[in-house]
Write a structure and sequence with these properties.
Length: 465
């Protein structure tokens, strides 16, 4: 039996290739939509992709199973209770999928979602099986996936179901069974933040250390599962319905075309949104009016999905072809398919054309501290998550989580001067661009965030004070 993990860093998730080296056949577990990576891996291994195995109807990304089926003729296998309306093999508890010498048993493991299944793989050429559990969100490294994504009213019922899944289906598996979860650190599907950094585990390790596995009663489990949950990205509300009907088949990675500055100007003044992927200091110096600042990185796609209206045509601002390709991947994974192109020649070409630009005032911790001490500085607007803010924030700061800022900006005074603050300056840049779009005329961007503030030796308050 061959298992290869493929980490999808933009989602905090993993997909897996499980295959028979003897039969030269494999399956992909929880594929994302840019399937070329799986095809390349399978070809390098000399394997045919026979199946794609879905552990659940995903809320955090669009499945690549339909794309794989169209490209290589694989069969999509998913829990029958999920109600998928495109061609697939519906699975029930106890069903078996065969890959050469590998027998994969389907386990009904509801809790993260009602239709959730896990895949228990037994390499029959080896003794002591089963050998691997592809657990989706049913069992993670040190935790479980959250049960509130379908609504707070349903969450307690799913949570009780979840406890039964762990105790009755998974707890009795052999210590040596390898655990390969889909969700990992960085995923907003986690019930609690993962701090270990590990992406795989074993049943024995989880039985010893996972607090959800150790919860003796349903009430004890619910206390863990439903307390202090992180916010849910806005685009999550769109994913499940699309996955049920089947995402649109792309036929390959969409190609971005260069757009002349004047064309970008016309489009950005109508329905298209400009997404500036440059670093905060470059955005602050000069940018397209009303462009979103989303500095390139592993979570850039998530923030676009959180802040930009679903279905909006997008234009990217970046001089790096590699960055642009990675952003196409991140965006199609969450259904942002209307990709009009990129600004040809970047901001240098834009400025040379004489088109309007906007800029932001920038400050540092060393410049801001004496202003705040003297009572003459701007109000710090801290856009980190609430748990980050409570762990340590600048005195007098106002906490509005970045994902909530478009909806809550109306409660802020446009006569007030604000300095946007985050952990390192990236989210603060995005926040400043949101405020600019909302008509705030006096916004300052703090470089380096609270990390730079602490490094300079300035105090931070804790709690809600």
């Amino acid at each position: 039996m061959f298992v290869r993990q493929i980490q999808i860093e933009s989602l905090g998730n993993s997909s897996y290739i499980i295959g028979s080296e003897d039969a030269k056949v494999c399956a992909i577990v929880d594929p994302v939509r840019d399937i070329d990576m799986y095809i390349r891996e399978a070809e390098a291994l000399g394997m045919r992709i026979a199946y794609s195995l879905e552990t659940h109807v995903h809320n955090d990304f669009l499945s690549g199973s339909r794309e794989l089926s169209a490209r290589v003729g694989s069969t999509t296998c998913a829990g029958g209770a999920g109600g998928l309306v495109f061609d697939h093999r519906p699975l029930r508890d106890g069903d078996v999928i065969e890959l050469g010498e590998i027998k994969i048993e389907v386990l009904a493991t509801p809790g993260h979602t009602p239709e959730h299944v896990s895949f228990l793989a037994d390499d029959t050429s080896r003794s002591g099986g089963p050998h691997a559990l592809f657990s989706g969100g049913a069992l993670l490294v040190g935790g479980v996936a959250r049960s509130d994504l379908l609504g707070k009213d349903l969450a307690p019922f799913l949570g009780r179901w979840f406890h039964q899944t762990l105790q009755r289906k998974l707890y009795g598996l052999d210590d040596s069974v390898e655990v390969y979860p889909t969700h990992g650190g960085g995923s907003f599907c986690l019930a609690t933040p993962s701090g270990s950094g590990a992406t795989t585990s074993t049943i024995g390790q989880e039985r010893l250390t996972n607090p959800f596995f150790q919860a003796a009663t349903e009430d004890e489990f619910l206390d863990l599962a439903l307390s202090d949950l992180p916010p849910i990205p806005a685009y999550y509300g769109k994913m499940a319905a699309i996955n049920v009907r089947g995402p649109r088949i792309l036929g390959g990675l969409p190609k971005l075309y260069p757009l002349a500055p004047r064309e970008v100007w016309v489009r950005s003044r109508s329905d298209s949104e400009a997404i500036d992927l440059r670093q905060p200091q470059d955005y602050a110096l000069s940018h397209i009016p009303r462009a979103y600042s989303v500095p390139f990185g592993g979570s850039a796609g998530t923030w676009i999905g959180w802040l930009v209206e679903f279905g909006k045509p997008l234009i990217l601002v970046s001089d790096s072809p590699d960055q642009r390709e990675e952003m196409v991947r991140q965006l199609i994974r969450i259904g942002y398919d209307v990709l009009e192109g990129y600004l040809d020649g970047g901001m240098e070409a834009w400025s040379a054309t004489g088109l309007p630009t906007s800029s932001l005032e920038v400050t540092t911790a060393q410049e801001l501290y004496p202003q705040l001490e003297g009572g003459s500085g701007p109000v710090p607007l801290d856009v980190r998550f609430g748990y980050e803010w409570r762990a340590g924030h600048i005195a007098g700061s106002v906490n509005v989580e970045l994902g909530d800022l478009p909806q809550k900006a109306g409660a802020l005074s446009k006569d007030q001067r604000y300095v946007t603050v985050c952990a390192a300056g990236v989210r603060a840049s995005t926040a400043a661009s949101v405020l600019e779009r909302e008509g705030f005329g006096d916004v300052v961007l703090m470089q380096g965030g609270t990390a730079a503030w602490e490094k300079a030796g300035y105090p931070l308050e804790t709690g809600n004070g």
